[in-house]
Specification:
The chain is built from one helix and twelve strands, in the order αββββββββββββ. By secondary structure, it is mostly beta strands. It has one domain: Porin. It has an eight-stranded antiparallel β-barrel with strand order 1-4-5-6-7-8-9-12. A four-stranded antiparallel sheet has the order 3-2-11-10, with no helix packed on it. β2 and β3 form a beta hairpin. It is elongated, with a radius of gyration of 22 Å. The N and C termini lie far apart (48 Å).
């Protein structure tokens, strides 16, 4: 029994040392990353002077560019991303045709290396978004304002080389209600995104 416990302890210690060593390989290095993918959003809800309108968001697209730094298994980054969706305007009462969101986010991630060159990650981000709602009439009318933004991320990465990794991830993103011109309020839809990307460390 004692021998089994000793072997278990030694094995756990060896695994811990291995994880710490792998985490510190990229410590104090920086990186730049680019991601893109498909985004699926909730309904768009807006009201002006008490008149409410709801439109379904069509599948859209999201893209991002980030600069970050590794601190052992923790990494932090500053990210800019852009997301856009068309709205289903199938009735005469639908006034708006699409919405988009441009965000600047401060993100924090934790990486777990579970095999040689293969890692899992989880992260969260807070920031500021500029939300625009665009009309379907010509000329196009645009209403926009800033809102507080938040997101949760999870995914995996594979190191192609010591400096380049390919990533596959999921992002849940949302923002607070945007107060637009003339007492117009837009409830920013939340979205689920599936992305692929590249990360270059230097």
């Amino acid at each position: 029994m004692k021998n089994k416990l000793l072997k278990l302890f030694v094995g756990a210690a060896a695994l811990s040392v291995s994880l710490v060593a792998s985490a510190t390989e990229k410590a104090n290095t920086s990186y730049v990353s680019v991601k893109g993918g498909a985004a699926f959003a909730s309904k768009a809800k807006y009201d002006a002077t008490g008149v409410n309108e709801t439109n379904k968001s069509k599948a859209g697209a999201i893209g991002s560019l980030a600069f970050g730094h590794y601190f052992d298994a923790l990494r932090v980054e500053l990210e800019g991303n852009y997301e856009q969706h068309n709205l289903k305007t199938d009735t005469a009462n639908n006034t708006y045709a699409k919405w988009n969101k441009m965000s600047v986010m401060a993100n924090a991630y934790y990486d777990w290396e579970i095999a040689d060159s293969f890692s899992l990650y989880a992260g969260l981000g807070l920031g500021l978004a500029h939300v625009d709602l665009k009309g379907k009439a010509s000329p196009e009318t645009t209403r926009g304002n800033f809102a507080f933004a938040y997101q949760l991320m999870a995914g995996m990465s594979y190191d192609i080389t010591e400096a380049v990794a390919v990533t596959l991830g999921y992002r849940f993103a949302g923002a607070t209600k945007a107060k637009l011109a003339n007492n117009f309020k837009f409830k920013t839809p939340f979205s689920h995104s599936f992305e692929v990307g590249l990360r270059y460390s230097f």
